[in-house]
Amino acid sequence: MQVDNQTDVTEFVLFGFHGSPNQKNALFCLLLVVFWVTVCGNLLIITLVSTSKNLHTPMYFFISQLSISDILLPTGIVPNMLHILLNKGGTITFINCMTQFYFFSTAEIFECLLLTVMSYDRYLAICKPLHYTSVMTYASCVTLVLSSWFLSFFTAFTDTLAASKLKFCGPNIIDHLFCDLVPLQDISCSDTFPLKIQLYLLSIPFVIIPSLIIIISYVKIIRAILQIPSNISRQKAFSTCSSHLTVVSIFYWTIFGVYVVPKRFQTSDVNKITSFLYTVITPLINPIIYSFRNKDIKNALQKPIQKYL
């Protein structure tokens, strides 16, 4: 059957996790709880930031945008994972596969850009405190976020368009958790070299440069913190960026583990576990890190609870 994207395959088979039926049932329950907690936790942060006046600052505005991304990412992946676990594997149509890949790419690219913006925000707050309020105005924050969303949607569209032009004329079995570009390239019967070149070129402005900006920002931040004479002030300054640094470390280590580490050092199971970490676990721990390690969010959460009690 020939379709417009010049492929003989109209659907793919996703294997998901291997294991016994009991293991898959236990994983289904765990994944369902994790997904529910992730959505509720990130919705709680969005609600607190939008309703609490003490959280109407650039840093918390960016955190609320991160929560939106952390809801979008698992929402496009986890429901299909649950379906696969219940049915011992599952099929996904070519169109749904490309749609899943599009929203997955959008969330990942946006998080890369937003974490870079947040590192710049922390750099200004600690290294340039006198210029912070004049640079990080509400208009500039909105512009940075909207620009990040626009670039994410546009870049994800170009990636998805390139992936949709791949030809699949042989096996349609994807031994992975969701539709990602690497497993799609593995089963494609067309020449994937132009697509790899395109991805390498796109990785420069969306992965390499953001990583360098984050590293340079934190080198300057740490240098500025070490120059503060008071231990209390030094600890307070570091605590304002420790949560962001933790999130950045977890996110980029898992991303590099999947897309940068050579394939000969990866197995199918290791790739699945790493992908599971940054698509399911990272969106779960982000609100936990910002809630338990941030006094302002804890105070904003305690006020309505105390009022209710």
Task: State the shape.
Answer: globular
Strand order of the largest sheet: 2-1-3
Which percent range fits the helix content? over 70%
The fraction of residues in strands falls at: under 5%
Key structural traits:
309 residues, mainly alpha, three-stranded mixed sheet, 11 helices, 3% strand
What does this structure look like?
With 309 residues, the chain is mainly alpha-helical. 76% of the residues lie in helices and 3% in strands. It is built from eleven helices and three strands. The protein has a three-stranded mixed β-sheet. Helix 2 packs antiparallel against helix 10 (268-292). The longest helix is centred in the middle third of the chain and has 34 residues, at 94-127. It is globular and about 65 Å long. Residues 1-7 have low confidence and may be disordered.
Outline the fold blueprint.
Layout: E1 11-14, H1 21-51, H2 58-75, H3 78-86, E2 90-93, H4 94-127, H5 129-135, H6 138-164, E3 173-174, H7 181-187, H8 193-226, H9 231-259, H10 268-292, H11 295-308
Parallel strand pairs: 1-3
Antiparallel strand pairs: 1-2
